[in-house]
Amino acid sequence: MAMHWLVQGCSYGDSLVFQFSGLGAQVPDDDGDELDGMDEALCPVDSFQQGPILDDEINEAIVRPLVHGVKLHAIVDACHSATVLDLPYQCTVSKQSGRWRWRDERPMTGACKGTTGGQAVLISGSSNGKSNICVQLPEPYATIGAMTHSFIRAVECEPRTTYGRLLTSMRAIMRDSSGNCNLQGPIGGSIRKVANFSGVEVTQLSSAYKFDVEREPFCM
User: Fold this and answer.
1) Which of 41, 122, 134, 164 has CB 3.0 to 4.6 Å from 214, enough for a Cys bridge?
2) Where is the Peptidase C14 caspase domain (predicted)?
3) How many domains does the chain have?
């Protein structure tokens, strides 16, 4: 319901943000639109009773309704989340050149996974698939996921940046983080610990359209 509410009535010039920090999962694909034969999913608190929210459902709810001039940023800190919006293109770093490159993730079935003219960008992470459920004892301060922390910290350090520099900064922060939160402002005031409960190792970017990540300004 919240996903449908987010995009309801969206129009030219709107900037939308979807954020999830928690557990992810993979389940067997039953409609043949996944290259690896697995659907990615998010696991909210009632997932054991109601089942996880599949990438097909997320794509239908918040990607396809995006009309021309609307931009959605999704920040997902969960294992198995690299393609959880089922977006057509994924941007990764080439091991040979060290440069960002796009990979075509469109299903061979020809199923439409894009928007209705708008743009959708997913910042997520590839993981080792081993989620660490973090149980926080009653304390005045909270725990934040490592990828969520790296995203906020990178934007704090360089508010005006490109997508490429943002992802590079996030990777460096995740690599160098000691588990202590050093966020500023109202967000950081209630957080003291960083925990990689999602198992995310490398931040990644997916998009409804290809663009030059080294030149395109990050703005949301």
Assistant:
1) 164
2) 2-178
3) 1
